[in-house]
Amino acid sequence: MIPAIRGTHDILPGDVQKWQHVERVARDLCERYGYVELRTPVIEREELFAKGTGETTDIVQKEMYAFTDKGGERVTLRPEATPSLVRAYVEHGLDQLMPATKLFMMGPMFRYERPQKGRYRQFHQLDVEVFNMGDPAVDAEVIDLAWSLVAALEIADAELVINSVGCAACRPTFQKALLAALGDDLPKLCQDCQRRAKTNPLRIYDCKVEADQPIIDRLPHSVDYLCEACATHFAAVQRQLTDWHIPWRISHRLVRGLDYYTRTTFEILGHALGAQNALLGGGRYDGLVKDLGGPDRTGIGFAAGLERLVLALPETAKIAATPRAFVAAIGEDGRAEALRLLRELRQAGLPAQMEFEARGVRAQLKRADRLAARVTLIVGGDELARGEVTLRDMQTGDQRAVPRAEAIDAARALLARDGAHP
Length: 422
Ligand code: HAM
What we know:
By secondary structure, the chain is of the alpha+beta class. Helices cover about 35% and strands about 20% of the residues. The strands form three sheets. It has an eight-stranded mixed beta sheet with strand order 1-5-6-11-10-9-7-8. Strands 13-12-14-15-16 form a five-stranded mixed beta sheet, with helices on both faces.
């Protein structure tokens, strides 16, 4: 047996229903909020992420599945979707086609991380991005979509944390203050932090090393160094969230591990998840479109880890199973008619199954139960002689005869009773 690659997973029948549920809820919500779907390739030029995600990030430095292809080009499996969507936005001039562009995408991402619960090497994201809308109400709307997604999935114990990391104008002042406050303590921090102090001091807030925490806790907060425009923007985001009764907490440490963020950053934490507790994360990135060779357009978005949403689903999640029909045959004549019925049901758009091996009716009904059939259509010699089919409601056990010509409509009516099927 050749096993799957470490950090990758098959999604097996049984679990797949949970995935379909999460994907369905996500898609419905995105469409309700005015987003359109766009799909990009899984493989991109390596430089897209070096430039977009950032040379100094862990993702680019340590985690990319990058290689030279047979044509000698440096390519990589995408570690995140934001640079890909920005590339597509610029490459296809989407700003001309749809001035306020709201895009969403679902698909696999790849990061060479140390696998643990909630952290994988191939994982899946729902990614949403909004271009050319700089108003703080848009930040709040994007956060609202994220919050509504978690609520619609009935995930309990979720917490929204927000922060503002400022812009190109005010960030240098904050960085200076940060380094000044570190002062003589800098050599006491871990090697990673020493490196961060040189490349991107904000990233020191990402440090998880226990011994560093007392020093990091004393450092200044980005929100105290915002320029007037950024401070006004952040206040407006908070006002809008309050107005919509969306509860949040400011986390001064929420700088996020990617280089492109400006102003608002946010995450939703799922406290039942363990160490990898970020259900989703995102923020504004007003310089990225221009940095990647596009027009000067603002951007904001977030990505949710689908594995983490699936893990956080409550046991009681109401996952709608498609109601299906089962056809049971008695005797050879019944079997020929049952096969006809089976195909008619499917042609009529109804999911239907039957047992192909000759079995007694009781065994067939048992199988129908195992498949969670909503209705079973039974045909045998008696039914054939009367031109009828016996319809069994699998929830109540009630049986009644219906004329053969009405069998499909009668089955449809029963399947539709639970509201799930046409
Ligand atoms: P991120 O924080 O790197 O942001 O990832 C977003 C979410 O993807 C995380 O909160 C987590 O749920 C999930 N995730 C990340 N890495 C893994 C992993 N190794 N295994 C399982 N799940 C994982 C971004 O990717 C940004 N592109 C978000 C964004 C969109 N910002 C603006 N627009």
